[in-house]
Amino acid sequence: MIDFSTSEVYGVSADHVTGEHPHGIGPVSRKRWVYTTNRLASEHCTLRYGAEYGLDCACIRPFTIYGPGQTGEGAIRSFAAALLSNKPITIYGD
Fold first, then answer.
1. CB 61, CB 22: distance < 8 Å
2. pLDDT for the residue 14
3. Number of neighbouring beta carbons within 10 Å of residue 59
4. Cα–Cα distance between 49 and 58 in angstroms, integer?
5. Around Cβ 42, how many Cβ atoms within 10 Å?
6. pTM of the predicted protein model
7. Distance between CA atoms of residues 60 and 65, nearest Å
8. What angle do CA 75, 76, 78 make, to 5 degrees?
9. pLDDT of residue 11
10. Three-class SS state of 13
11. For the chain, which residues make up each domain, given as ranges?
12. How wide is the angle at C-alpha 43 spanned by C-alphas 39 and 47, nearest 5°?
C-alpha cells in the first residue's frame, strides 16, 4: 500500500532534511500547517496499519507536482509563466 503524501511534511526544513530532524512544521496559528499535519498523521496511520496487518506500506513525499487544481506558485508554474511572458527563468540553488 502506498500513501501519496506531500513534501510539505518537511515544512520550513525542506532544503535541509535530516534523519534527526525530519519535520519542520511551524506554529499551529498558521493555516498552512493544517494540511501538513493531516498528511503527517496519514503517514503514521498508513505505517501503523501495515505493521498491524503485515502489509508492505510506504509513504511517498513528492516535490513540485503540477496539474489541474494546483494551488500556490511552484517551480513549474513559475517557469511556464516566465516563458510565456518572454522573461528569463530564475533558478535558486543548484
1. no
2. 64
3. 19
4. 11
5. 16
6. 0.64
7. 12
8. 65
9. 73
10. helix
11. 2-63, 67-94
12. 170
Q: Which residue has the cell 493555516?
A: 31
Q: What b/e readout covers 13-39, taking b as 16+ CB neighbours within 10 angstroms?
A: eeeebeeeeeebbeeeeeeebeebbeb
Count of residues in the chain: 94
Residue 57 Cα distances to 35, 46, 47, 54, 68, angstroms: 21, 7, 6, 9, 28
Q: What are phi and psi of 32, to 5 degrees?
A: -55, -35
Tell me if 47 sits within 8 A of 40, measured CB to CB. Answer: no
Divide the 94 residues of the chain into consecutive groups of 10 and give the mean pLDDT of each group: 87 64 67 84 95 96 75 77 91 76
